[in-house]
## 1
Amino acid sequence: MTDERNEITLHGIAASPGIVYGRAYVFTKHTPRIEERAVTADEAEQEIARMEGAVERSEKELQKILRFTEEKVGSQKAKIFEAQIMILMDTVLFDAVRRRIRKELKSAESIVHKEISKYQQMMLKSPDEYMRERAHDVEDVKNRLIRNIQQDRLISRFDSKSIVISELLTPADTVLFSRNDVLAYATDMGGTTSHAALLSRSLKIPSVVGLKEVTKHVQQGDWVLVDGYAGTVVVHPTRETVSRLNKKKREHRQFEERLVQIRDLSAQTTDGKDVRLSGNIEFSQEFRYLSQQGAHGIGLYRTEGIFLRSDGYPSEQAQYQEYKTIVEKAKPYKVVMRTLDIGGDKVVAETHEEENPFLGWRGIRISLDKPEVFRTQLRAMLRASAHGDVGIMLPMISGIKEIRRAKEHIAAAKEELRAEGTPFDETVKLGVMIEVPAAAVLAGDIAQEVDFLSIGTNDLIQYLIAVDRGNETVSSLYQEFHPAVIKTIHHIIKEGHRHGRPVSMCGEMAGDPVATLLLLGLGLDEFSVAPVVLPEIKKIIRSVSYRETEEIARHVLEMKTEEDIKDFLRVNLHSMVPELLLE
């Protein structure tokens, strides 16, 4: 069936692939109402008891969800809920709640709301998109806990197969709706790095996020078409639209079957140039999926996760165990570990308000200001290098002085380990993220100080063209094909190669199929991408000649506008890899 009303197409972000047509179920999330109710000293103890009972009920609920997730997608993805349970077991947090209830004589839900929101706000201000997405997980725990304090019930079931429309879905919502064979998800908010998006991909449920106004345009029971490839949702689709999208669905299925055939092959061009194709991951449990996608190593291992899961800074032994696990899983391939890259507003740090955390106290700046934390992490990384091929990468570098200071810490950590007789790889490679314009300009000088360079396009583009892509007012000006961006990338690669240093890219641009021919032609040695796009990038690399891509890059470097560059690259990509399904 189709809807006779006017067709509306909404554009968002493709979070999980697939095309689905069905009836909408509009899920309105119940936000607990917080009353800042005054209590007596005697009642304060009752409030604490209510809070403790709610913690226990919340933990039981999450344990059930965790077990269900393990059954559906395995224990690796279920770790998401282990992290939420750990928040409920945080003695520091709940000791603070108890103290405040007794001191301020306010209701349990109001104090829980204030105390957890404090940490949540720190995360939302982070310059790291991954960190901002984790704030939604904290919101989920907070609302669950308050709902249990108030003894409300949350309904996460519906009658039949439907497409769930909502402002935002939590990881728990994503899993619980799947019990009813949900067809797809479409939300106003959210990003591709959220845990809800990760679970959607694991559950093979098509998903489009960041639609902004889907809840305004869709009513209960409307016919809706979700395209998880293009990141679009069509409300009241015509017969012609449904027919066209069904054809596209068949084509994608056939193309994906062909991609499976090249999974274990190398990323080599038709004229014999080898390119390293690796993945970006955030926690060790993701490696299995990365390996299934045909990656040859990890080009960016974000180490922030263990810091967020810890009360205070994690110990050397805890970090070592985590790093060792991922290194052993990745053998014989390389793991590039980025040192801590959370802003000064990170959860485990002392309260530190900043007006602009993107340009503030973050990355290497924190590490150098907190040498004991930095040294502990370096020792753990070096110890992990005894178990496989490890590279250490420094984030947010803006000059030579920072690199030399970091190298002094690395040398001191090595000396300590030698004195203790603790094994590590003496030849561990050191690299830097080129994500600050100053570092891009100094790429040649920096290359002489380190063993490899990695271009972090997400931040580099923002800083280079002065656009905060998280700010909806100016986000349309965020242009990865801006001529200045292309020339800067070319300069970095050229300077790296001039000094015999390999250059990789681990930003989102590396995973954009339209950019692949250009980056290959500019001489990029390694593409480090999200696991979901890896097979497609490999297909492009294996289908083209390196000499042809060099010619394409030469043409692009002479172009003046982003529009011309994108059009030129799309035309060439379609010509050279006609079976690729471009959006």
## 2
Amino acid sequence: MTDSAETASDRSRVRRHPERAGYERKQAYAILDAGQIAHVGFAVDGQPFVIPMLYARLDDSVLLHGNVGSRLLRHLASGAACCLTVTHLDGWVLARSHFNHSANYRSVVVFGSACSIEDPERKAIALAHLVDALIPGRAADSRPSDPQELAATSLLEIRIDDCSVKSRSGPPKDHPDDLDWPTWAGVIPLALTPGTPEPALDLLAGQPLPDYLRSGRAMR
């Protein structure tokens, strides 16, 4: 599947503010690759669930992981249909009226079904990819999973069947009659940034901070 391929279907078509929508995989993948937490929705016996999970994209799939004892993950691994969403809040949009306040954001909704990765070698590679996707450079600088840890981990691959992007950017859109209202209007930018690394209390003496964690680079 090429990055430029459109992924729209009736279930993923954006109907409210369609001018904010996009359906190219290149757009969707950029939003996925910039995120850390996805909300995964599915139903078990008619009961809907939405759970937050760390994730990473690998080619045309999204990787999720958890404990093998998780009933919800076992349900997903059975091939149940699911929906995954990621949102970046980029700013508060302050208008002159309550009605026109808004937010600048980028979001993606993915539809697909999950399958379990069982092969130990492939599972180890995928888990290393998860680590590196969240903290680039970390996989090579930490111990790989051992056979017991691999056996205790459920690793799921959600194939991206179709998806849609929705985003907003720019200043407030006030009604012309409100432009003379005496209040400040504009955008308050928001961003998720890493703080100062806090060493573990039992860190080996003299262990330096690795380069990939310096200068605020501890996030993709």
## 3
Amino acid sequence: MVSDTVSDMILRIRNANLIKSQYVFITKTTLTINIAKILVEEGFIEAFRIQDVFLRGKTISQLCIFLKYKGLKKNPYITALKRVSRPGLRVYVSQKRIPRVLNGVGIAILSTTHGIITDRTARFNKIGGEVLCYVW
């Protein structure tokens, strides 16, 4: 059992990008589903779907993320994923201190009272929250 599903998700996507895999399976939670929705909206991944997987005689519902590549060399759209807030060290920001990732090229994903949102949406709505990760 994984205790930090966001770190597990980031690590699995990073490893799948390194071997240029078409898809990756991730533990399904509401948090990982919301992060996957943001990655699809921002164009970092192709799509995702919830899929039932048979493992050791049990049916487990998992999140299947389809990764996105560009060019003949299959360069991944996700250059880097960085976990910011973790269980041992939570990072909270106010509305005035929401970080810009590479001057707006990348995104920061925040957990707020309005749900899981990007840094641009948080700045527009003038709300702060916990910085989960950076994607560029």
## 4
Amino acid sequence: MKKTLLLLIFCCLLLSACNGNKEAAFQMEPFSYTNQNGQSFGSENLKGKVWIANFIFTNCDTVCPPMTANMAALQKELKNQNLDVELVSFSVDPTIDTPDVLKKYMDKFTTNSSNWHMLTGYNQAEIEAFAREEFQTLIQKPSSSDQVIHSTSFYLINQQGEVVNSYGFQQSHFEEIVAAIRELN
């Protein structure tokens, strides 16, 4: 069973590594969840702003720690470039990832949570549907594992709430992300 799970994770990583520019932006539906501070946060807070989203979970023992470290590095780079961008990390394991757990996890990677929001406050079926419908990506939590299959992409969302592009989570994409953000501003 573990081999099957590892194969599924590998396939998801492989598929997400093949991502490229979206042919056309697609509009997101409104959402409101709970951030790492226990406060309501959602699309209303992001109206008129450029933001980057990803999917993570705190119990992840594979890609999430480097993804989160790279989101923190991207946060620093955006600040150094004087770009006003919000960062949003959606937990794909909401039963485990309470606001307090997310806050402690974030604190391992950054001391600046002013523009980074780790979200929870939904059930597993809701986040799986949200990812599929709004980001056109797969999330699946096998019943036989504590790990969750999910995208490793960073998604760029424009001021109108449209997902306009996705990027691999590696730092090598930062220059491309920054250039795309400058075009949106």
